[in-house]
Description:
Two copies of one chain form a homodimer. Chain A is mainly alpha-helical. Chain A has two domains: 11-76, Winged helix-like DNA-binding domain superfamily/Winged helix DNA-binding domain (Arc Repressor Mutant, subunit A), CATH 1.10.10; 81-242, GntR ligand-binding domain-like (Four Helix Bundle (Hemerythrin (Met), subunit A), Up-down Bundle). Chain A has helices spanning 11-24, 37-44, 48-60, 81-98, 103-115, 118-124, 127-141, 147-163, 168-180, 182-185, 192-210, 214-242, and strands at residues 64-67, 73-76. The first copy, chain A, has a two-stranded antiparallel ribbon. In chain A, a hairpin with a 5-residue loop joins strand 1 and strand 2 (73-76). In chain A, helix 1 (11-24) crosses helix 3 (48-60) and helix 5 packs antiparallel against helix 12. The radius of gyration of chain A is 23 Å and the shape is elongated. The interface between A and B is large, with 58 and 58 residues. Chain A binds a DNA duplex through helix 3.
Amino acid sequence: MKIDPDSSADLSAQIATAIRDEIIAGRLIVDARLPSEAELADHFNVSRPTVREALKRLAAQSLIRTQRGATGGAFVNRISFPEAYAQQITTSTLLLSMNDVSFETACEARFALERSCAALCAHRRSADHLADMRAEVHRQSQLGLTDEAFCASDVTFHRALVDGAGNPVLSYQLAGAVEAMQPLMNMITFSARDRARIVALHVAIADAVEAQDGGAVAAGLTALEVETQTLAARVFAARAAQS
Amino acid sequence: MKIDPDSSADLSAQIATAIRDEIIAGRLIVDARLPSEAELADHFNVSRPTVREALKRLAAQSLIRTQRGATGGAFVNRISFPEAYAQQITTSTLLLSMNDVSFETACEARFALERSCAALCAHRRSADHLADMRAEVHRQSQLGLTDEAFCASDVTFHRALVDGAGNPVLSYQLAGAVEAMQPLMNMITFSARDRARIVALHVAIADAVEAQDGGAVAAGLTALEVETQTLAARVFAARAAQS
DNA sequence: AAAACTGTAATTGTCTGACATTAAAAAAGC
DNA sequence: GCTTTTTTAATGTCAGACAATTACAGTTTT
């Protein structure tokens, strides 16, 4: 591992970067044990708290895990899909909420990405995925559902569609796009008529998935995108007029 | 902010989670200043090093930035697109390299996602994006290029295509998919004939983008996917036979 | 009066040293 | 040979101190 001269950056940041580079370059493989904190401190010529801060940075990115006890230490972590999902969702959500990304832009990206699953999902979907989609459609049709519950069910429906493509990498990438939209969707209040239209489109999509007609799935998603965009435009216009 | 009982988890992890939740929920807005480390230590009833470890965890995710001096402290950071790109790429790259994701699966996901930009890029592409694509095609045609330089140019070409869609959220999501493939692509050695075929497909895609024909862009990407998959299959088969 | 300088206070960055906690391995006892 | 106890090595936490940095106010100089 490289050394850190007395540059302007934090020592802990430099050390974290040095170790991260080792992991990315493959010189530290999964489950390899890092030297103990005392050894690292000695190696980098810093104190143990500084090393610890560096290790915590890496732990925050799920790059390492730590274990106490005699044979404990810091180990290179095999980043799991669920962990990657979670990071992806957090980053995407904050990116959207902090950068004044318009609803249109986010919505366009989300549906563009989801359409990329249409053909694969139509081709590969299992009975389970289809059943999940039908179940969510049924849930959405119930009266007296809160807006938040409606949106949550919407997300579950779309995740079933994405997972139906049977490609974990695709599911991972889409997780951010679909979940990060939820806070934006929650800003909208859905009237009974709006919900009925959305549910009808969901039914059409589920039918297309069942028929394994990729083109129809994509068309259904496009129709849903148009519906969502016009609905959002109406809500935001009304809200702007009110204030 | 909530307190942390003496549960089994690390105190610094609990504190980091508590603060992260405040940020995600919007109770701590961008550029808001967190209490000083001493105040946080007092509030959570822990020592300052523990608080610092928590803050470093958040800094590693670009959720906060710190500043020294009299009016310094920790501030909620507006996560920028470049920062989000970098995190996305790191996570995606490690996810692929550590989880035995097959080349086919990763490649399928990557091209499926990229096709989602085809129509938008064809519609919106600027002259700049087109020029970038042409420039990369020209670079790829040069003889004596190393495999790595060829792959790097390939990535730049595809990023120009993605950016041509004019949707920053889409560019962000695709960054991970496109860049994370590079290490996998670098495992392949491209013969002159292979390169010529790929360049020809790139030319076809650039032509389609210039003609603003979204369907042709998507078709070109599909052809490129087929070419890449068969090429990779041949390389891996040859390598397997050799050993 | 304006500008340059200086000191002070607040805050993060780092170090030292210590103790608590944990969990595996070695040793002891039966 | 098995169970129990002790040892040991590692992380987790704490307390206190000092260094480095920066804004601000007050002072001096021009």
